[in-house]
Structure formats: C-alpha cells, structure tokens
Amino acid sequence: MANASTARSTVHPAIEAQPRRIRAVRPTCVAVREVVRYGQCMNRLYTSILTIGLTSVLAHAADLTIMVKGVRSADGALFLAVYDSDKSFMKVPQAKTTRRMNASKGDLKIVIPDLPTGKYAIASYHDENGNGKLDTNALGIPQEGYGFSNDARGMFGPPNFSEAVFEFDGKADKAIAFSIQY
Questions:
Q1: Confidence class for position 61, pLDDT limits 50, 70, 90
Q2: Whether residues 29 and 109 fall in one domain
Q3: Most buried of 28, 116, 127, 136, CB within 10 angstroms?
Q4: Buried/exposed code over 3-40 (b: 16+ C-beta within 10 A; e: otherwise)
Q5: DSSP of 147-177, one letter per residue?
Q6: What whole-number distance in Å separates Cα of residue 160 and Cα of residue 22?
Q7: For residues 136-152, average pLDDT
Q8: Shared domain check, 27 and 66
Q9: Which structural domain range is residue 7 located in?
Q10: Which residues are CB-neighbours of 54 under 8 A, at least 6 positions away?
Q11: Mean pLDDT along residues 96-115
Q12: Section 20-35 average pLDDT
C-alpha cells in the first residue's frame, strides 16, 4: 500500500479529484498539450498562407494589349476608352477604363492590366491639337483621327457597341489591333 500512497502524492490534487478513467489520460495530455497547440497553430498558419496565395493567383485577371495603328504624327495625345456595355458605350465617364498617352507617329501599344472577363469595345481618337477633345466640322464629321475595336465603322456616326465588341476571357492575355482613320 505504500507504493500506492507514494504514487498518489505525485499526482496533482485537482487530477486526484477527477474520476479514475480521466486521471489515467490527463498526465499524458498535459505533457503533450503545448506540442499539440503549437502544431495546430502552425497548421492554421500554413493553411492561411496557402489560401491567400491561391486567392491572389486565381484572382489575377489577364492583360489586354491594344495596338493602335496608323497614327500620322507625334503631335498631341492619343485618348482611348474601354467600354463594357451598350449603355456606357461612347460615354467617357462610364468607361471601364481610359488611357491618355503622348502620340507618336506609327503604331502605339497600350496594355490594360488585370482586365476581368467580359465583353468590351474600344473607342480611340488622336487629339492632334492638344485641346482634349475630338474636333469636328460644322456637320459633326471628325477633323482628327479616330478608331474603334474590330476596325468598326458607323454609317453617319460612330459604330454601335455590337459592331466594336470583342470577347475577353480574362484567363489568358489577349492582343487586339485597330487603325486610326483620318
């Protein structure tokens, strides 16, 4: 009986008060508890890092590269607007994105990064005199160069969204080209 009392004296009083079945498991768990918590914490950390990494990779949209051909001079600037609906088409404040770059004679390359999946149409003009707008004559005919995706041309005005629209899957980079008409 002396051995039993010696063994009981080494057991914590709170553990002694618990039922025998739990008492047998508790000392082992107390020793392992910190290791288990550390392991669980590291698993949660690794899971979080993996989730953030995958989310950022999957959320990355592709780039759209636009080649504007036939700019006749380096005077002024080239304006470009990307539209994503018929309702917003040719309304610059409602464009998905816009770009302004200094003109250069020949072809200009513009990259729109991280463009999401969708249907888009592009309108562009060459503001040669630098006044920030597409100049027209008394009849409304443009006096400066302009162009649309798909090289769309309208009859008695700009083309419709449906004539200039193109599909962009957002998964793979895409390149399109159109010419400026003077």
A1: confident
A2: no
A3: 127
A4: eeeeeeeeeeeeeeeeeeeeeeeeeeeeeeeeeeeeee
A5: EEGGG---SSSPPPHHHH-EEE-SSS-EEEE
A6: 78
A7: 95
A8: no
A9: 2-58
A10: none
A11: 96
A12: 52
